[in-house]
Amino acid sequence: MPVLDFEVVKKETGNSPTLLLIGGIQGDEPGGFNATNIFLKNYQILKGNVWVVPVLNKHSMLLNHRGIYEDMNRKFAALPKTDPEYDVIEHIKSLIVNPEVDAILHLHDGSGFYRPTYVNANMNPDRWGACSIIDQEYLADSKFPNLGVIADNTISYINKHLIKPEHKYHKRDTKTAKGDIEMEKALTFFAVKNKKSAFANEASKNLSLEERVYYHLLAIEGIMQELGIQYERKFKLSPQNIYHLINDAKLNIEIEDNIRLPIYGLKSELNFFPLPKKSIQSIKVTGDSYLMGLSPRDNQQIFVKYGNKLATKLNPQYFDFDHSLKQVKIKVDGKIQEFKIGSIIDVKKSFEIIPLEDYRANIIGFVLPKDNAKKPNEVGVEITLNMCQSRFSIDKKEKIYRIEFYKGELFSGMVLIRFQ
Ligand SMILES: [Zn+2]
Q: Ligand 1 mean position to 108 CA, how many Å?
């Protein structure tokens, strides 16, 4: 898997200060990168700025791996130029030292529950979950020098909203400058050395994803309050509501502006799926979250990912993609309508594709009676669900079918028909 660069999304009002929020330095810590994603989709900043790196180690996230090129959070002291992640590290360092950035919050999922003294195997000083980490109490010459006080106040905000008492947060001062050789290589200490007020929040890996995200969002809110950043949240903060945001059945992924697929409910494999003839990492992937991606595997399959979740596996057929076709006309339940390429079209009873000059339509799972043409043009026929072969549907409920449009040998895009 090649190294992927990360995205930076800026929520700005123009007033200082600026918080840099970073998720996903480790690809198997979904609490952090789901929190940044939900933050981006559901918070509005009213005063101050928040720059967000939703997922720093995207190539490892797509493989559900902590770090396919070793631990990325140990690469901030010295790093040879030959390291595969050298450019990514240089990029994030340049963002950290950017003069506009005043403070950094780094999100992690850690094991167990940190406690200053030994309680049991799950709760002790060697555990990393449920704590707020600083490298030192005070950072002279920085915009927010009282790191310890800010962490204390953030912790008390979190602890006012605990789901269970045993989730209680504690402060962990690693006193890095006094000889913590491991932490000296970490992102937050690089920030501290550059006079940037830096904090890390650890959500416990013992908790469900929505509970981890819940505590990360509390930490983000607590830090924003300490820095004087004002915000508005679009939902009532609770693990249940976060669960619904993460598992929203309406989430789609978009591929090269020609294809849109739902993330949930797909069959485990989709065959002869059109993808462009170019490297997988250069395929444009967008959609309703910052965690979407395509991940190639050794067996030629392409995994469609949403964070650490697998949406489906594609057995691709590669085409040159054509972007000339913008919309198509389809008669849906008796009424002719225009649809953009990439649309997901709800149909009650029947649909019929209106013929297009220069393009042909192929409904995957429908064969024109008495027509075995290799390159069918399935237009002008009214089609109902029982005329489609269910094994070609893309979803487990066998209600969604692909219509693919071609111009000669070129793939011009797809729409989906979703029968009710
Ligand atoms: Zn981590």
A: 4
